[in-house]
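Query form — protein Mannose-1-phosphate guanylyltransferase

QUESTION: What is the three-dimensional structure of this chain?
INPUT:
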Amino acid sequence: MILAAGLGTRMRPLTLTTPKPLLQVGGKALIQYHVERLAAAGFSELLINHAWLGDQVEAFLGDGKRFGVRIRYSAEGEPLETGGGIFRVLDWLSPQGEPFAVVNGDVFTDYPFARLPRRLDGQAHLVLVDNPPQHPQGDFALRDGRVLQEGAERHTFSGVSVLSPRLFEGCEPGAFALAPLLRRAMAAGEVSGERYKGYWVDVGTVERLRQVDRDLRVWDRSTNVNRS
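ANSWER: The structure tokens for Mannose-1-phosphate guanylyltransferase are given below.
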């Protein structure tokens, strides 16, 4: 599942007429990078939720055939937050109780999605990264492959994860956050994790969008790649 239902208010005026997933860096829409990299990693079925200007996302990506995947959509109207958005489509994501991958649509990373675990030892697996300047306090700690709420060295949740439907036991339809569910699972020792040291940016502001665009164009020049 690619989470793409944010309103993009911090990206205005760019997002007044274009949904954040379709903003471009390096000559491509942000969400296109996720779709292509997930396809390259062997994922064949994707679900994308959307809200603000979501019809543009559907029109751009279509059924996913040109990317070698099958794409379905969850049109939320009003955003349901991360937890509520996932819970709404849980039966599709996990019809037989199997784990599923979730990627935030507003991050840019070269994380190799093929490395994500196909099975879980617990309720969730989180990819953590070094703390960016705008979030120096981090989110969680990592010790011996387990994610903890507290620790001497904290890292930032990248927005890339594998989740079990067991994480959502007891939830009701509606808008709710994912973080409290993860913290509950951490308290029970049910969250594994890894630290990724490659490229990752939370594309939450216009400046960080421009940063990714600059980085990609520098990389393209150094490798003679044409993304147009």
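ADDITIONAL NOTE: The longest strand covers residues 154-163.
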